[in-house]
Amino acid sequence: MIGGTRRLDGLQHGGRGMASLWLVLATVMLLFSVGDGRLVLAAPLRPVTVSHAVLPDDGLTTAAATTSPGRPDFRVAFTRLDVGQAGDSLSYTVQVWNEGSAGGAVRVTTMLPPEFSNVRVNAPGFACSRQFTAGGSDAGTLVACTRSELADGAAAEVSVEANAPATPGSYRLVATADPRDEVPEADEGNNQVATVVTLGA
């Protein structure tokens, strides 16, 4: 019994020794990897730091992306109208101003009935022309004045004089800004104005 006990103790001690040996071998295998047939020490793991950029929540980025560029907005009006008797002279002033948020080139036209003659125009800052058409839907004298820039909030004037017809009656005058819709505007519905003048006997 004593001998048997010693053999059992030896096996038990030997079992613990074998377990320790296997633990050492497993640890060594974890520390080494095989590459190209050679034992290469595995690279140690390094912590990786991930950084995130945070934009300030001030609303500026969203506003800049959604805001559309400014546009001009031209408006015209008759600001002075001097009417005499038939056969006298007629004079009036067309004012154009830019109510938009950006400047732009502007063209102003005004149409006089064909009964008015000797049409003169005075418009500082504009380049103007006159064209007479004797008949048809466009009969009359077309005064066209163009300038390369009218800043936002600015105004300019086109003054016209003409000899009135000898026949009394009512006559229609028309003024238009950007008549060909060449300039994209904030409001396209306020570019024209008309008035009727009455010449007495």
Walk me through what this model shows:
This protein has 201 residues and is of the alpha+beta class. The protein folds into 2 domains: 1-42, no CATH class; 74-199, Immunoglobulin-like (Sandwich), CATH 2.60.40.1530. 18% of the residues lie in helices and 43% in strands. It contains 2 helices and 11 strands. The radius of gyration is 47 Å and the shape is elongated. The chain starts with a helix and ends with a strand.
CATH architecture of the largest domain: Sandwich
Q: What is the mean pLDDT? A: 78
Order of helices and strands: HEEHEEEEEEEEE
Helix content: 10-25%
- What is the radius of gyration? 47 Å
What is the first-to-last residue Cα distance?
156 Å
**What structural category characterises the helix and strand content?**
alpha+beta
Strand order of the largest sheet: 7-8-5-10-11
- Tell how many strands the DSSP assignment holds: 11
Tell me the quaternary state: single chain
What summary fits the major beta sheet?
Answer: 5 strands, antiparallel
Tally of contiguous helical segments: 2
Percentage of β-strand residues: 35-45%
Shape: elongated
* The CATH fourth-level homologous superfamily of the largest domain: ntegrin, alpha v. Chain A, domain 4
- What is the C-level CATH assignment of the largest domain? Mainly Beta
- Total number of distinct structural domains: 2
CATH topology title of the largest domain: Immunoglobulin-like
